[in-house]
Amino acid sequence: MGTRLTRIVSFCWVLLLSCNVFAGSSVVVETAQQMLKDYALVTCLKKIETKESNLTEDLGRSIGALHFMGQGKHQIQQNEDTFEVIHDPYQATATFLRMRSEVLKGYMKNGELSESLGCIRAYNSVEFSEFIATQDEYIH
Asked: DSSP H helical segments within the chain, as ranges?
């Protein structure tokens, strides 16, 4: 009876630890996805303003912080011999969001254009969330 109880307790511990590992990896993926989404949004907003200002400088610092060289969680895939970039999830995501933002531009009642609203609409789109999930294989 003691051996059976030990096996049951051991099994429960293994099961409990496994659940924590999978839950932890889910948090890592969600955090990485959010950071990649934020990187693309900040990049989209920065491309709107062409002249230097306090805002563009701050957006530039945010881009650096959210990128792989900063605190970003996605890895840029390179050829190990030539160092040629095979896939850059940051560039791919920023390009995807910018293209979607062109389609989703915001027009005001007076006919004026709001490019930033296009960035926000694209950021909140289902298509963008689906694209972000395709970049999960590059999380390190």
From this structure: 2-48, 54-66, 89-103, 115-123, 126-133
Q: What is the CATH number of the domain that holds 58?
A: 1.20.120.1620
Query: In angstroms, what is the C-alpha Rg of the chain?
Result: 21
97 and 122 Cβ atoms separated by less than 8 Å = yes
Q: Kindly report the CA angle at 134 between 94 and 140, in degrees rounded to 5?
A: 85
- The answer for residues whose C-beta is within 8 angstroms of residue 130's C-beta and 6 or more apart is none
Q: Which two tokens stand for residue 102?
A: 């062109």
Give the structural domain span for 120.
Answer: 31-138
The band of 4, judged by pLDDT with boundaries at 50, 70 and 90, is low
Residue 15, domain member (yes or no):
no
pLDDT in tens, 34-74: 999 999 999 999 999 888 999 999 999 999 999 987 678 89
Instruction: Provide the domain count of the chain.
Output: 1
